[in-house]
Automatic annotation (TrEMBL):
PROSITE patterns: ABC_TM1F, ABC_TRANSPORTER_1, ABC_TRANSPORTER_2. One of its GO terms (molecular function) is ABC-type oligopeptide transporter activity. It comes from Paenibacillus phyllosphaerae. SMART domains: AAA (SM00382). Its EC number is 3.6.3.-. This is Subfamily B ATP-binding cassette protein MsbA.
Amino acid sequence: MSERGAAPYPLRPDGSMGGMKRFGSGEKLKPASIYRMLASIYADAKLEWKSLLAAVLCLCAISLLQFAIPQLTRITIDSIIPDRAFDRLFFVCAGILGSAALLGIFGYASTSLIASAGQKVLYKLRNDLYRHIQSLDVSFFDRNRTGDLMSRVTSDVNILQQMISSSMMQLITDLFTFTAIALYMLWIDWRLTLLLLATFPFMLLTTRLFGKRMRSSFRAVQASVADVSDHLQNALTGIRLIKSFTAEAYEAKRFEDRTTANMDANIQVVRLRAAYEPIIDFLNFAGLAIVLVFGAWLAMTDQMTVGTIVAFIAYLRLLQNPIRHFSRIINTIQQAAAGYERIMEIMNTTAEVVEREDAILLPQGKGSIVFREVDFAYGEGARLFESFDLELEGGKITALVGSSGSGKSTIAHLIARFYDPQGGGITIDGYDLRSVTLQSLREQIGIVSQDIVLFNGSIMDNIRYGRMDASDEQVLAAAEAANASRFIEAFPEGFHTQIGERGVKLSGGQKQRLSIARAILKDPRIIILDEATASLDTESEQHIQDALSQLLQGRTCLVIAHRLSTIQQADRIYVLEQGNIVEHGTHEELIHLAGRYRQLYDLQFPQSEQTRLTASPRKREVKAL
């Protein structure tokens, strides 16, 4: 559980949270250039230059073959039929069938080569994106929704995959075909070709006008997909809470609202596409009309043969096909550009907690932790700590108590360097946390919290997460030390039992003992117990306390607790209120001080004073334990 003062991101008067910038939340973003996207993809694709070169040669061959077939038609009409050259029909038939077969072969080769290169580019992009997300600090995840991040890694990258694997191949093929045929048509009759090409600027202008709106609409579609994904992720992980409060209808309505937004965004895209494609088709038919009318006039004036007109119409179809394809490809490209923008938003985000270039490895030491004049606030919120001082003695147990929001968990987060203070410094054995590598720091810290994180997998895998290279024997020893072996071996599959998502098949006490076993296996120098037994029953708590006694021996330990019965044996207890230490001492010293700690103690144990005064020393000792 994270305690962050009154509110790390204060509520505005309208009820929204201040200090948070969340991706895809509707703010106007500067559109990413399609050319920049293609240049970025090309930069990664250059590593596959051999495959791409082979694909380009195949595309050149495809363009030449498409160019050859209309020529065979022209020869048949202008030469073979008038000359009644029956013997030449076989060669025409063989030429057309051979060209068709070669088109299939080269098409298969080019598709396979481009798709393979594209998949490798996307493989690198998705892995780079995931690694970058992993490198960002905790505050980034505080500001952004899990479902939205998942959508960027999956849906947005998949859209790029569609563009690279199919659309880009079609675009490259059409570019070669269009260039070759346009040059040939200019050579045959430049007047007719120029009249035909006069329609193309109108196509480009239409594409440009619709392109901007399409990209905006596709961005709305992808943002709505992220909203749906985020809601679905929250609903599925919180299904027990939903059912316990009979909130199925409420959640269904919320999901319906998000899918309605997705539906409306998709309808807007369809409407733009439905308006765009008929305009392109009209301009294509205008080109056909020009060829038929002007070409017929040339034929009737003996300036062009009928076979040439037929070939010209065939070339016109080949010339118009790229435009037709482009009208569809532009949809994919615009959608990919919107997805690329969303991916680049993540890739261009930098972590606030970073290592220095000259960071050193944190040596093994006593584990003494010192806060000196630390200033800290979450985001733009009010300061939680101001000139805050605290010392955790190495090899001793230090406890933090206080009201919710007083800053106890924040101290744990600062020690693990999930956040950096805005002022002052924190040292371990004299080393400033910002001067050591994050890995060497966190390798020496073990955290056992009330909010236990377990992964869908086996018990063995979850314990071994504490140290990936641990042997089975070491995992079993850690489970034994955590008092977990008995319940684990009671399962039919023992340590290989699958525990389900977030350990749903285990009880709270069992999950907690697994987390302690994981911490024992890690063998950290510093232990942080953040409300580790707050939600457990008495029997489970006793098992946990026995396991913790194994874990804490000879280590620096920070215990954060609301239940004062768990910290009475601490070497030093600090009482925090609103980011300030108001009292400190041992349990007995604080009881006799009759301050805030005594007040909290009496609230939890109303009869404690009378019992403490009348009980024998032996009974008081048992009571404390």
